[in-house]
Amino acid sequence: MTRIQANLVLLLAAAIWGGGFVAQSTAMASIGPFWFVGLRFAIAALAVLPFAMMESRRMTSAPTPAEMKTFVWVGLALFMGATTQQVGLLTTTVTNSSFLTALYVIFVPVIAVIVYRRHPHWIVWPGALMMLCGIFLLSGGAVTRLTTGDLLSISCAFFWAIQITLAGRFVMQSNRPLALSCTQFAVCAVLSMLIGIFMEPINTTAIASSMKEILYVGLVSSGLAFVLQVIGQRYTTAPQAAIFLSSEALFGALFAAIFLHETIPAVGYVGCGIIFVAILLVELVPELSKRRNSRIIAET
Fold this sequence. Notes:
Blueprint: H1 3-27, H2 33-58, H3 65-88, H4 94-101, H5 104-116, H6 124-138, H7 148-174, H8 177-199, H9 204-209, H10 211-232, H11 238-245, H12 248-259, H13 266-299
Helix pairs in contact: 1-10, 1-11, 1-12, 2-3, 2-8, 2-10, 3-7, 3-8, 4-7, 4-12, 5-7, 5-11, 6-13, 7-11, 8-10
C-alpha cells in the first residue's frame, strides 16, 4: 500500500467515525455511556477475532507476550478516549464534541517530538494549525463557556492522540494490525463494562432500544474504522495520520446537520474549505518534495 492509499484509508475511517457521533449521541437516550462503550467494543472484538486468528495462522505464530503487552497499552488509551468522549456527549452537542475531539491533530505531533524525538515533515505543523482553524470555524467561530462535556471532549482528544501514536508505533513493530485491533477492543470492552456494572443500571429493554446504534458503532465505527486506522498507519506517519483522521470533525458536523438538524453557520463552510486545503497540502507537499529530491539525486 502506498502512502497516498494509506491516507485515503484513514480518510474513510474518519468519515465513518463522523457518522458514529450521531449514533453515539442518540443512544444516550436509553443506555448509559459505559455500557454503550463496553457493548460496542465487545461486538467489535468478536467481529475482528476470526480475522485476527487468520492473521496469526498466516504468520505461523501467535503474538508474543511482549506484543500483547503493547496491544494492551493501546487498549487502555482507547478506553480512556472512548469513555471520556461518550460521557461528554451527555452534556455537549455532536458538533462541539467532534470539533474538540479533533484537537488531537495538535497533540499527536507534539507527543511524537517529546516522546520519540521524531520530527514530522514541516508541512504537518501549518497543516495542523489550518485544520484547527477550519474546525474552529466549523463549530461557529466563537468561544463560549465550556461545559463539562466540552472539557471531557478535550480530555478525549489527548487520549486519542496517545492511541494514534501508540497504534502507529506498535503496528509497525508487530506487523499484526488485526491482532492489535482485536486486543484493544477487548481491553476497552472489559474495562467499560466493569465500570458499568457498578455505576449504571442495565436491562434488556435499554439494550434493545439502542441496539441499532450499538451495532452500527460496534461493527462499522469500531470494528471496521479502527481496523482501517491501524492498517493505514502502517504506511504513514502518526502526525500525517492525525491530519486525515481529524477530518472526522467535518463529517461529524455534516452528519449532525443532516440527521440531528444541528446547524452549520455560514462561517462553517469557510472552515470546511480550509480543512479540505489542509488535507491536500499534507498529502501533496511531501509527495512533491520526495519526487523533487529523487530527481535532484538522479541528475547528480
